[in-house]
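fold-stage: in
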Amino acid sequence: MRYIRVIVILILLVLAVSFILEKNNVSPEEAITGISKALNQKKNELTQKTVPKNRLYKVDLDGKLFQWIGNSTAELIESYGEPIRKDTSAYGYVWWVYTDKHEQYIQFGVKDDTIQTVYATGSNLSTEPIQIGQSYDEINKRFEFKNTVTYSKDLSSYTFRLDNDEMKMRPLTKVGENVFVQCYFDTFTNKLSSIRVLTGDVLLQHRPYAVEYRGDLPEQPDLTAEQWDKVESGMEQQIFNITNVIRNQFDKSILKWNDHVSEVAFLHSEDMAEHNYFSHYSQNGDGLKERLAEKNVYYFSAGENIAAQYPDAPAAMEGWLNSKGHRKALLNNDYTEIGIGVYHLYYTQNFIQQP
């Protein structure tokens, strides 16, 4: 078959050269040169549009990050190619995830083929007009953060009120009639750790701040068990990727995924949600040591992070980064593997050191 293809291609090439010679009255050498240039041009076009599936090299967000809100998925694919995966969210949009799993992480929330929200963290990101790693004071000069931010839609009006801790860790600013930016700061370094851009409707669904309003609030997620399974699975992968990107920023080793440890983490998240408690210790008194032993997980050392009622995985990650004890586990260089379990809005990270 290969030889037949080669013969057919040669015949077509000869016919093409003959047609060009007859049509344009040019020499054979000129005709072949023209065809060669056309083939090379097409090859370059295809190469430029191809993004390696497991690697996002230099991310260029075409200037201002918030300008992606309202853009189409066609524009997203043209710029970055297909995402490495698509994660279902609890809020009606689908996360298109782009990451090299070490240095850069971006996810675009898509609904009806339109970008509704963006989350970005990592190194070497072009996120004008602000940059990851920039100081709080520098960004505050740009946005002039305030503890009240307003939003109006139709006959409804909303006022988001931020307390002092929220102003330090995740201030909110309005950059358009229906576009908001959450700046997540590492309060231990006072530097920008990640950026989230979102529409007013998405912000109201997440409700990360106290809100006063006139009119109607959008309904909170009411998902089936099957839908929650998909959301939880996506958030587990997001936490895994973001964890390693954050660790890389602090020159810590990359963690491997451990299925058995993930099962332990999931069962603890599920138990906390179903029995309405929040603790590293189960209601029977068992801690991480006992839960790992029950699943025959062997290790040199282990640690655990838990979180609850954050609207999604990126928000939970920023919470852990800004808590002294959770941060210590997150950035512990002795750990080699990680297990992650999410059940509804309960999140558990289990870290272990393997020989």
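fold-stage: in (second)
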Amino acid sequence: MDVVVLLMKLFTFYVSPSTVDRVPASMFDTPQVALAFETHAEENAYIGHFEALSGVTLYMPLDTLLDIKGAPLDITADPWQDSLEYHYADLSVGVAGGSVIYIHVEPEQARQYGLSINGTRLDPVHNNLQELLGKPDFIADDGDVYLRGNAALKIYRNMQTGIWEGIDLFDGNLS
């Protein structure tokens, strides 16, 4: 019977709409086992790769950044890299060669606008970092560094108080 259901699903794209109307809708329902698996997957929030910080992705073309975020409040030269820094209300973005090379968020920006990695909310103040990121790959003098492939996420901390002072997403090969 399973083979028949599978074949019917495969061929529904090739038959006329009147034929599809005669196939019982229950044959196309998602099994409860799959729904239970999907719910369980959403509960596991560990972030296994870094693509975006607060909605901006690494290597996003400048045109796309401007389409998504609009005109920046200010543009300044980055004193550490040969790039320009585009300042928005919710983040700052380093741009070189026509694409995003880093994203930076200050604590005030995160409090006011929120903070997310790949669309998953991050809250360094209430410290859900261990749950989302695991243990840091290494601890620098000024913060914790997490590596995922070529991408690196650095959470800057005041080493005396432990309070976070900023967060960067960047290509770990470029630093």
